[in-house]
Amino acid sequence: MRILLCEANISEGRDEAVIGAVREAILAGNTVKMIDFNSDQDHNRAVFTYLGDPEAVLAATKRLAAKAVELIDMTRHHGSHPRMGAVDVVPFVPVAGVETSEAVAMAKDFGRFMGERGVPVYYYEDAATAPHRKSLVDIRKGEYEALEEKMKQPEWVPDEGPREFVPRSGALVTGVRFPLVAFNVNLRTTDLEVANQIAKAVRFLNGGFRFVRAIGLRLADKDMVQVSMNLINFTKTPIPRVMEAVRAEAARYGVAVAGAELVGPVPLLALEEVVRHYLQVHDFSVDQIIEKNLLP
Amino acid sequence: MRILLCEANISEGRDEAVIGAVREAILAGNTVKMIDFNSDQDHNRAVFTYLGDPEAVLAATKRLAAKAVELIDMTRHHGSHPRMGAVDVVPFVPVAGVETSEAVAMAKDFGRFMGERGVPVYYYEDAATAPHRKSLVDIRKGEYEALEEKMKQPEWVPDEGPREFVPRSGALVTGVRFPLVAFNVNLRTTDLEVANQIAKAVRFLNGGFRFVRAIGLRLADKDMVQVSMNLINFTKTPIPRVMEAVRAEAARYGVAVAGAELVGPVPLLALEEVVRHYLQVHDFSVDQIIEKNLLP
Description:
2 copies of one chain form a homodimer.
Chain A: E1 3-10, H1 16-27, E2 33-40, E3 45-52, H2 54-71, E4 87-96, H3 100-116, E5 121-125, H4 136-140, H5 143-150, E6 172-176, E7 181-187, H6 192-202, E8 212-219, E9 224-231, H7 239-252, E10 257-263, H8 269-278
Parallel strand pairs in A: 4-6, 5-6
Antiparallel strand pairs in A: 1-3, 1-4, 2-3, 7-9, 7-10, 8-9
Helix pairs in contact in A: 1-2, 2-3, 6-7
């Protein structure tokens, strides 16, 4: 079983005809499965999340992007969400059975395809061609309006496509990121400082786990505080290890864990280590799960 | 998503032509997925495990059974495994999205189908029509050789089909059982008595959990003992609750858990409570798992 997921962001959240045409382009041939869609009139942006066989996802993404640059004119785009192109950002996420290197090859195939069609393309995250291009925030800084000047700087020459500003399409950012696990732990205290100290203890920024981002938050409606985390590589920094570190740090302050949240979609593989760790089934494999036999 | 599993046992483990024909009957139309197959010459028995949409599994099971009773003659059957019919025992197992009552209706549809084709049928486990018919061991006691006399007793009148012994087909047992989780916990001691005491503490038989069967075993190759368990209803007696009970009992003897084993296929739903219990994600649902979107 090989599954690639794509989360394509386009700069159109108002015109239903355009959104519908792009959606149709993705689903043409019925080879990928749409698992989430949202559009926002204020952001003037739509996000399509779909998955399937990697080759099918790549083909669907090409159809989507070709249709979107045909129909969207960035010279007339206004919206509150940061953006720099008609097809703004397209992360590929290897969910199962796909190596990061394979996903990067797919992102670059897609990037060349769009470059050849006259769209300047930047690679980000695991597909980045330089350290300063890894973060979407840095690439997109200044947004569409600053792009013409930005592209003249040597460090912002596009990775694919024309080197000059293309007013109609703007620029496209594509790349690969690991599936992210959003994991929040709620604590039986109203003392935000406790959550902040634990966040510091577990996050990479302050010496914690390499693949953990964390902040402390107040949960006003619950009379609790929360350690809100993103686990950006659950195979190398697994959920149980983070959970137990949070629990141990909380115990220093005499604070108990009240509960936790796994927010949004979770890759099946992220649960493998939960079973291995807590049930001590050292060789447990998600391949043992009956339903896995029915996956394509 | 609705998944029914069937584990059909036929009394032929030697004649490849017969086994192949039965296998073809199951897979005709390619509507179910075979996930396991084994046959044994000494037992003279084959077991087909397949799953899919409940209606497809029922149809495949009818094709299988019709073909097997056509080809297998019990008057000439010899084998070391207990048996009483050409199609010996056919449990339906509701894996996901299927209520036990629905699975029982399917087992009875199958039973009537075979009854009409001249095969005496007994319902067992969750499809049993009387308490003394719940256990396969009781129904099959005396095996094929005792069946003619057994069927004359009022308490062993078949549930479907002819009331007289049918030498060629023998009788068929079908019914419904919950997916079983085989869970073994290994202990850092060679003292079998510790494993036996823990088995007694957690199993139904001696006052433990309602849906746990357990025995103590010696693991000679590992210098350890094991509490070997079958969890026969993981939704009502979830894995983590059993694990923690075993751990607590072991601690009474100063013995630690060295590891554990989940043997064979595990239903996805059995992991839901593992995440909820240990990560304290009280509202975790297996519907959050990305791959679930790709299931039929």
